[in-house]
Design brief:
Layout lengths: L1 H16 L9 E5 L8 E4 L4 E2 L10 E2 L9 E5 L8 E4 L3 E7 L2 E7 L7 E5 L8 E4 L4 E2 L8 E2 L9 E4 L8 E3 L3 H71 L1
Antiparallel strand pairs: 1-2, 3-4, 5-6, 7-8, 9-10, 11-12, 13-14
The structure holds 2-acetamido-2-deoxy-beta-D-glucopyranose (NAG) (3 copies).
């Protein structure tokens, strides 16, 4: 202890006696001063620093921001200033020492059924809130979306929505279904009309054919008649000259 006190006094005297040799930041003591020699200093290097004047013979190792603890470098170490660490993206600082983050936690993830009320920052965790009734969210949105209003869209509700999932509607519009049924009926009626018309037409053709078949004998009769007529004419002509004679 006596020796320490003596050395301290000696150093103080020494420093006071030779102010320019006051140990500057970024330096370490190479050799202590004596009554005959000023203190000699040497700059810190190789990942070390000295951020305040001191009589230390060793520079202090620079802080390393531990990547596996969610930290990263904000400011690189110099001979006069230590490293400043900050949280990585998606992390927030839970322990700050001398302006540098020492420990960081991951931002909380909002759950399905919750929305992000406040996005997390480097110094504050994310804040989540539960979706209000009639809305839903998967936890990644800044708001909850309202359920699809199936009824007011004229759609049949298949499954009502809850805080995590949307309502599910029957995509077939009831009016559309009705119009399809009506169209179907109309088509059926049209088909029946066409079939009936076709049947009638065929019947008519059949009638015509029969009519043609039926009209054949009268034709022969007619020719027959004409022959008879000719015959009678001939016979008449034959008779006439006789009469004329
Ligand atoms: C200590 O430094 C001062 C200022 O530069 C100088 O005047 C003095 O001679 C030095 N002393 C020794 C012992 O070197
Ligand atoms: C990192 O540096 C920026 C300025 O470049 C500063 O605003 C921020 O607060 C720093 N972060 C920490 C953790 O010191
Ligand atoms: C919400 O509905 C979905 C699908 O029907 C279901 O899987 C889920 O468990 C429901 N969630 C809650 C909180 O009721």
């Amino acid at each position: 202890l006596l020796l320490n006190v003596f050395l301290f006094l000696l150093k103080t005297i020494c420093i006071e006696n030779s102010l320019p040799f006051f140990i500057l930041t970024g330096n370490r003591v190479k050799t202590d001063c004596t009554e005959t020699a000023n203190t000699s200093c040497v700059a810190c290097k190789g990942g070390t620093h000295m951020d305040q004047p001191s009589g230390r013979k060793q520079c202090i190792h620079c802080t390393i921001c531990d990547l596996s603890f969610g930290l990263k470098e904000n400011r690189t170490c110099t001979s006069t200033l230590d490293t400043v660490c900050e949280p990585q993206d998606g992390f927030y600082c839970v322990d700050l020492a001398a302006g540098s983050c020492v420990a960081a936690h991951k931002h909380r993830q909002c759950q399905p059924g919750e929305y992000i009320r406040q996005t997390g920052t480097a110094f504050r965790d994310t804040e989540c809130s539960v979706c209000s009734k009639g809305t839903f969210s998967d936890g990644t949105l800044k708001f909850c979306r309202p359920h699809r209003p199936c009824e007011s869209l004229n759609l049949k509700l298949i499954r009502p929505g809850n805080a995590t999932t949307d309502a599910q509607c029957d995509e077939q519009d009831e009016n559309v279904v009705l119009s399809w049924i009506i169209t179907g009926c109309l088509l059926l009626i049209l088909l029946i009309v066409i079939l009936v018309a076709l049947c009638l037409f065929r019947k008519k053709i059949g009638c015509l054919k029969r009519a043609r078949k039926a009209s054949s004998p009268p034709q022969s009769v007619q020719s027959c008649e004409s022959r008879t007529v000719k015959h009678t004419q001939v016979s008449y002509q034959k008779h006439t000259p006789k009469k004329g004679k």
